[in-house]
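tool_call: predict_structure(chain=1)
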Amino acid sequence: MRIWQQPISPAILAHISQNTAVQTLGIEFTEVGDDYLVGRVPVDHRTHQPFGLLHGGVSVVLAETLGSCGAGFAIPEGYNAVGLDINANHLKGVKTGWVIGVAKPVHIGRSTHVWQIDMRNDAGELTCVSRITMAILSPR
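tool_result:
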């Protein structure tokens, strides 16, 4: 079942991300399904930590980007989705390539959303799992 309540596409998501941390880190939106979003982040000099691995905080930025965008487009126009809590478990280091995140809703409620974001390396190995809780604010 399609969950989107506003027009959404990779192009729309890229447009709203201009001149933000998303663009600076090289995050790309690659797919929008009926009930999920897919995006990816490059593993390079912009996203490495000092020891040559993808910085864990960058995985969290990817997760928050996908979960927030998911929630923001799955609510009626005029409402706002804001983050309440996010967690991440880093499972496998990544040195090069891309990390691809898939965000799917676990719960879509009237006042909260919970989104699960699974991140994998180019070989399809799970590198990080994250969950974000979003507050849904009604128009003022």
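agent: The chain has one domain: 10-137. Proceeding to next step.
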